[in-house]
Every structure is written in structure tokens, then in C-alpha cells.
Amino acid sequence: MIEKALQFTGKALNQFVKKKFGIDDDVVIMNPIIDQTGTVPKENQNKIIISLIHVEQENTKQFYNNNQPLGNGNYARVPLSHRYNLFTLITPNFDNYIEALKFLDAAIQFFQINQTVDATKNAEIPSELKRLDYEFQKGENYMQMQNLWQALGAKYQPSVIYKLRLVTIVSDEVTGFDQAVIQINTQTEEKP
């Protein structure tokens, strides 16, 4: 689900930016800011980069159901589903600083317009996702962003962080089966 959520977000942002600026080429990619060798990937040149920077499990609400109904009335026991928040760094990486700011502005506009996306707003959202909520993440101060960029091994660039809320990850593995309840006995036996 992480991959589907990020792919959908990238595709939707790409369509928005292409339409806004009347360009034909794709401008949004999912990629790390710096690759494993410590260099900027060539495909990041003149693109808006979406990078996953953190994943946290949502613990405040219970969304768990580990029984899946089968066609015959019985139930399959599956592991509990869990929901996660995905933190993404949106970074316009352009040769021209003014162009980078223009594309950063467009990315922010996209997320302001699309704070919640479901099938009624975008028919292309994968059915497994059902809904995505985007939430702007404000840093407490300038040093937090500096520390993030240092941890990434890169020089700071104008960027924003958005949280994709409550992405559900469900295991396909069945751990057991439960029989359907066929009859309930409501009579009580009298004791002598």
C-alpha cells in the first residue's frame, strides 16, 4: 500500500503540474534526494522529487478486524490490519532557483486543493486505498529542516513535508478459520 499511495500521489501531482504550466513532459518522480553512493541521481534533474522520509503506525484509533467473511458463512482469521502515516518530502530540484520556487508553489497548491482524495474526487485512486488525507507538516524551527537535510546527506533545498494519513496495510495470510453460528439456544435448563 505504501507504494500505491506514493505512486498515486506522484501521478496526481504530475497531472496537476503539467496542466497548470501547459507542459507535456513528466515533471514529478518518486526518488531519494541522494542515492546510496552519496550523489544526486541524474533523473532528479529539473524534477519535483517525492521522497518517503518516515513511516509511523497510527495508534490512536482502533481500525482492526481480523475476521473476513467467506462465501459459505464461515470466517477466515487474518492478521490485524494496521494503519500508517507516511511522511513525504516534496522537493523541486531545478537548475534555476526561481523555477524551483514556482514548482514548489504549484506543489503546495495541489495539496491545498486535494487535502482529502477519494473515488468521488479522483476515479484513479486505487480501490485498496479508498481515501488519502494530506496534511502539511510544519517544522518547529529552521534547525529541524537543516537536521533532516543533513541526515539525508544533501544540501538544503526549498521543500515541504506532507503526511499521508492512515494508509492501511493488510496481510493476505490466513491464520485460521471460524465456523458460522448456525443456531443459538436461548432456552435455559432448570436446575433441580
Structure description:
With 192 residues, the protein is of the alpha+beta class. The chain has a single domain, classed as STM4215-like. Helix content is 25%, strand content 29%. The strands form 2 sheets. The chain has a 6-stranded mixed β-sheet. A 3-stranded antiparallel β-sheet has the order 3-4-9, with no helix packed on it. Helix 1 crosses helix 2. The longest helix is centred in the N-terminal third of the chain and has 20 residues. It is elongated. The mean pLDDT is 84. InterPro entries: Pvc16_N. Pfam families: Pvc16_N (PF14065).
Proportion of beta-strand residues: 25-35%
Helical content class? 25-40%
Structural class: alpha+beta
CATH architecture: 2-Layer Sandwich
Output the CATH class name: Alpha Beta
Choose one word for the global shape.
elongated
Radius of gyration: 23 Å
The largest sheet is: 6 strands, mixed
Element pattern in H and E: HEEEEEHEEHEE
CATH fold-level label: STM4215-like
So how many helices? 3
Number of beta-strand segments: 9
The number of domains:
1
Strand order of the largest sheet: 1-2-5-8-7-6
Pfam family, one: Pvc16_N
Domain Pvc16 N-terminal: 13-179
InterPro entries: Pvc16_N
Salient structural properties:
192 residues, alpha+beta, STM4215-like, 3-stranded antiparallel beta sheet, 3 helices, elongated, Pvc16_N
Put the structure in a nutshell.
The protein has 192 residues and is α+β, with helices and mostly antiparallel strands.
